[in-house]
Fold this protein.
Amino acid sequence: MGTGIVSILLNTLPYNGPWLYWISVVVFGLNILLFATGCIISLLRYTLYPEIFFAMIKHPVQSMFIGTFPMGFATIINMFCFVCVPAWGEWSRNLAWGMWIFDAVFSVITALSLPFLLMAHGSETQLSSMTAVWLLPIVSCIVAASSGAIVADVLPNPQHALWTVIVSYILWGIGLPLALMVMVIYLQRLTLHKLPPKAVIVSVFLPLGPLGQGGYSIMKLGGAAQTIFPQTQTLESGSGAVFHTIGFMAGLILWSFGLVWLFFAIASIARCRSFPFNIGWWGFTFPLGVFATCTCQLGKELASEVFRVLDTLALCSGVVGGGGRRYIARSRVGPIVLCALFGRLEGTRGGPRGSGWIKKGLRFFSSIWRRTTRYEVLQTKSFRDSYSIHMAKGVFGSKEWGPRDARTSSCSLYEVLFVE
């Protein structure tokens, strides 16, 4: 998600140049590589250990990250339309449409099923444990809506483009109101139980995601409707311009509401002064990135230099600055690993399931990891049947997993990916 939004911003920056275009292409290629690698690792993990999948899907936090799959894939679709479609010709337009259809279907399934599983889960969820991560599966519909507007602009068939725009409006209507309801719950949680711990304080930036992406989506859909509605004789002759005007008004309102949450987020970070670097710092990049895309679209609609400058500043200070701080922090604290352990599942102690060459290969890479890099893992939260490990650094120690909070243990790469 973060790598994808950086490539999109570099490609659509108001003050652009050929060198920025080629940098965006390189980042786009890196994004595809990272996405494919993550998919292969996840597929191996849940194929070799199906018990982990069922434990993950019932987890009130870990399950929410399934929403990152369609959002990450949507950034690839957007850049495919920006870069590959102009270069590869007509056949790539239908390919982009097919990828978007898959992403839209997956987004709807994610946005509807995961909140219901959270409601139907047997154990009671405390308001104090609620985080902005609940927004992740819901925002996937809003991201798919914005991708639909981009795909509709490159489709050769006006009727197909019309269907894409209509479905994208439906996706936007599913995602944004539901995200606003979750944000109300999150505001209540912050008001009653105060700010999150320093280890997850970055999550206060996540509400910028649905607001920034929602504003960008409705403006892009309005522009697509203004072009496509007259071509297909949809509604009245001037209905496209009405959709475009309403889209701009809604986008400006959502962008303005995003300024409120941006203030809350910056004030929360300033109040903490210092907070530990962990893998959750990804929460800086994508929310600020989509808020920057909304700012950029406002600048295009108004032909305003002010919004163009704001968009450039948002890119430099939010995305590039956040990434620079991340690498500086990493050089100070060493490697970071995030692993989630889901209780003691039967059949996981003997190593991964599968053919012999898979087992031998995993054990081989695990042995190399043990020789080259060692980690000490800090458990930050414990549950009755499962617990999560959020930070890892330092020196490899005992392999015994402590059942209580504030206990330290260790894991190798093999155990990070597959054990429990």
